[in-house]
Design brief:
Blueprint: H1 3-16, H2 20-39, H3 46-61, H4 68-76
């Protein structure tokens, strides 16, 4: 499937959504992606890289993560 077909398919699925929470989540994701694309031209410093790793490890150690099953169940409730 080419990019145009994927966009059309995405929009069709988006229009079927009835969940305010799902729409807000997608809006936030789009906003983050647009913001990130502006920042992508700058490489991450080693300090920032290590800080992100530390945060990720801390999240994992303190249970601030979702399993794939939990994420799939949450996503299923969006529509």
């Amino acid at each position: 499937m080419d990019i145009q077909a994927r966009k059309i398919s995405f929009v069709q699925e988006f229009l079927k959504l009835n969940s305010e929470e799902a729409i807000v989540s997608l809006e936030e994701l789009l906003k983050q992606l647009k913001s990130r694309s502006k920042k992508e031209a700058k490489p991450m410093s080693m300090k920032e890289f290590n800080e992100r790793i530390d945060r990720a490890l801390d999240d994992a150690e303190n249970g601030r993560v979702l399993t794939m099953d939990e994420l799939q169940k949450e996503m299923a409730s969006w529509s």
